[in-house]
Automatic annotation (TrEMBL):
GO process annotations (BP): L-amino acid transport
Species this protein is from: Streptomyces calvus
GO molecular function, one term: branched-chain amino acid transmembrane transporter activity
Protein's name in the database: ABC transporter ATP-binding protein
Keywords: Amino-acid transport, ATP-binding, Nucleotide-binding, Transport
Recorded superkingdom: Bacteria
Length: 238
């Protein structure tokens, strides 16, 4: 079986600064794969390149059997790759429901869209309770839920989440992680970037540690959770 996503020797630069220096990894359908690593390791750059927002210097990205090179970002969404970006990017003056609907902008199946809005409200009840309110009135964690709900509205084959727990209280973070677990259990394929290595490794099937643009260690989430070097560097142990 070929992987849903295959990243091969990917290099990405901002001018002369090489931020991603030849990384390779795959994501199989139904898996949660996580990229962990400190600030500046190149994780966000990798996701932005997969989404078509940045062009690679070299390497290849194959998604669902097709090379994504030179395919524009909006077309990549329609192929089934959704991105919930770092910093959320919701539209604060629009209602919560309209923000969700934006995630379905490439779909025409009205009934399916209504069903998925109901599903988003089941997944995140607070969004349903406040559906007619401006999205800017939500707390940071609730806005994160909205960003995830909106990404799901495109019915993605692969959901990419960039730092979903960033800036959240411990309780809100647990809620977000529990939701990611629920999505995984429902069969959603997820590529997750997280600063919180403990939480990410606990639910990942496969994990890669990135340092200054390279993957320096790979393994199952459980293996890396118990790896001594990972524990020292990322889980705050001596
Ligand atoms: P973070 O968790 O802080 O987002 P990251 O692992 O996602 O970290 P990136 O944001 O991908 O890392 O950054 C990788 C490198 O590229 C860093 O050295 C960063 O300073 C640099 N970089 C990121 N964005 C730009 C940009 N727009 N122009 C120039 N350099 C950039």
């Amino acid at each position: 079986m070929t992987a849903l996503l295959e990243v091969e020797d990917l290099r990405v630069a901002y001018g002369k600064i090489e931020a991603v220096k030849g990384i390779s990894f795959t994501v199989d359908a139904g898996e949660v794969v996580t990229l962990i690593g400190t600030n500046g390791a190149g994780k966000t750059t990798t996701l932005r390149t997969l989404s078509g927002l940045l062009q690679p210097v070299s390497g290849d990205i194959r998604f669902d059997g097709q090379s994504l090179k030179k395919i524009p970002a909006h077309k990549i969404v329609s192929l089934g790759l959704a991105h919930s970006p770092e910093g959320r990017h919701i539209f604060p003056r629009m209602t919560i429901e309209d923000n969700l609907r934006l995630g379905a902008f490439l779909r025409n199946d009205k009934d399916g869209i209504e069903k998925d809005i109901r599903r988003a409200y089941e997944l995140f009840p607070i969004l349903g309770e406040r559906s007619k309110q401006a999205a800017g009135t939500l707390s940071g964690g609730e806005q994160q839920m909205l960003a995830m709900g909106r990404a799901l509205m495109s019915r993605p084959k692969l959901l990419m989440l960039d730092e979903p727990s960033m800036g959240l209280s411990p309780i809100m973070m647990q809620k977000i992680m529990a939701t990611i677990k629920e999505l995984k259990d429902q069969g959603t394929t997820i590529l997750l970037i997280e600063q919180n290595a403990q939480a990410a490794l606990s639910l990942a099937d496969h994990a890669h540690v990135m340092e200054v643009g390279k993957i320096v260690l790979s393994g199952s989430g459980q293996d890396l959770l118990h790896d001594e070097s990972v524990r020292k560097a990322y889980l705050g142990e001596d």
